[in-house]
# Entry
Amino acid sequence: MTKVQTTTMLLSTAALLFIGSANAREFADIYTDCGLGAMIAPNNDAVAAVTNVTWDLGTTAISSNASSPETCEGGQGSSAAFIFDAYPSIEKDLAVGSGEHLTAMLSIAGVEESARADLTTQLRADFAELVAIEGYSEQTRYEKAENLYTLLYRQIS
# Structure
């Protein structure tokens, strides 16, 4: 960890100590219910918070709370966990346009069967743009899963 990251983490921790309990709870919820941490460990608040802080000092959690708070309210944790766990298979299914992992992802996300064909078409188009971006192949599995999760829930909204 760099000196800047360490300093930022220490300042963030110190700020938490001075925030009132109501605000601290809201902040804690962001770190456990949003961002990469919630995606990786939707049922383990401690792991979710540590992941968010370790990965990017919580930037993703805070920005996802600000830009799409509906994704931080729970209920989507199962989708996030499935996308992360099955990412390579979902990626292959998206390339083909069908498959059991793609179907399972849509089912877990609560997409009605009647809407799946249209959603799959749009998701495939958006995903094709995503994988065409320079540097995609260098992304970590976490980053790829988070991007797919974001694409999915933008389509559902």
